[in-house]
Amino acid sequence: TQARPNAPSATLENDRRHLLRSWSALDGPAPLVVGAGEGAWFRDESGRRWLDFSSQLVNANVGHQHPKLIAAIKAQADTLCTIAPYHANAATSEAARLIAEVAPGDLNRVFFTNGGAEAIENAIRIARLYTGRHKILSSYRSYHGATTGAITATGDPRRWGSEPGAPGFVKFWGPYPYRSAFHAVDEAQECERALAHLADTIRVEGASSIAAILLETVVGANGILVPPDGYLQGVRALCDAHGIVLIADEVMAGFGRCGEWFAIDRWSVMPDLITFAKGVNSGYVPLGGVIMREAIGERFRTQAYPGGLTYSGHPLACAAAVACIGIYRDETLIPRARRLGEEIIGPALRAMQARHPAVGDVRGLGLFWAIELVRNRASREPLVPFNATGADAEPMGAFAAACKQRGLWPFVAANRLHVVPPLVIDEQALRDGLAIIDEALHVADGYCFD
Ligand code: PLP
């Protein structure tokens, strides 16, 4: 019999023969072949069910195959699948209106992109045009995407393969109390010293050359670093004092993940630009964008914006955004995320920290948490070295394998497990997943020494 093009056996074969996948070597581990999804679960080709504690790349906020989101995409497909961005259409303008409605303050105008990296590129362009300056300051502990500007702004080692990158980018250290770059003894001191360091960086770079400070409101892929109270207010004050545009990268932290529409709402700070993607429509169709304050939008009142994309405001993606924002509201998923973080995840992870020597630090909010694994709690030596590969990375591989053996799909980065399930996860599944992590931590404990 002839194999169907997508029969399970052919899927992996074609993948191995013809695909170059993100951040992967051709001879790297074989991918899991996924066939179906439902809510906080997905199934592989063998029919095995996985509890998704990753939301894939922290994007599937309303979970897999949400019926209302699927219906909205189907309805839009029946009406208008594609249209050039120089036309107006109902889905795109309604998505822009809703995004402006949930965005803070007077961030009322949206430029749509296909994803997060393009959102960063356009935010950088807008900040440069608005200020007439060129430098972009960003943090070492950051990820902003893989296009030239976004990867140059990125701090983590994924930047290395694209160096030397674009000119005009400068890095600084943000707050990270557990591994303080400032030898701070508590959060308040970390906040104060991180702000003094940023002020120094601005001084020596020359404020009049700095267009923007770009930061993840809550740092995502680099460790779920929740800023100490006062830090974002302090960055806002520095931007105000020097005429610098503040870009809040909310690609991962925004749209409910942190128990707020945007993570920055928690500190009542108003950025000048917000970049978003992922949770805006849970990734059912690629979409991202930049939300800007009124005054920045006005910069383009008579002068055309010198940037564009064939698929800016794609109707299928925008119809999915309209439906997704409706789901967040109708199912009250955002306050629920805040509550699940405070009442279930935080307490459970802290209890694990008390039981397992490998758990060095626990931090997070909403459905955005990390546990940082160490070999020794006193020295805080990470379970794996910085940017570990091969045998050096084995302890984290073994820990992830222990999660997978028990049916949990984990999000593992460096020496951390990120706990980032879909916002729709039911409480029992959340508790079950946390119990699996608790069991798997015995594997990590095995690498600890006194
Ligand atoms: N910014 C942040 C904070 C991200 O986490 C990501 C992706 O993970 C990006 C930007 C890049 O988004 P994309 O992969 O959609 O280009």
TrEMBL record:
Its cofactor is pyridoxal 5'-phosphate. CDD domains: OAT_like. Signal peptide: none annotated. Residues 1-12 have a biased composition (Polar residues). InterPro entries: Aminotrans_3, Aminotrans_3_PPA_site, PyrdxlP-dep_Trfase, PyrdxlP-dep_Trfase_major, PyrdxlP-dep_Trfase_small. Pfam families: Aminotran_3 (PF00202). Keywords: Aminotransferase, Pyridoxal phosphate, Transferase. Transmembrane segments: none annotated. GO terms for molecular function: transaminase activity. Belongs to the class-III pyridoxal-phosphate-dependent aminotransferase family. This is Aspartate aminotransferase family protein. It comes from Lysobacter yangpyeongensis.
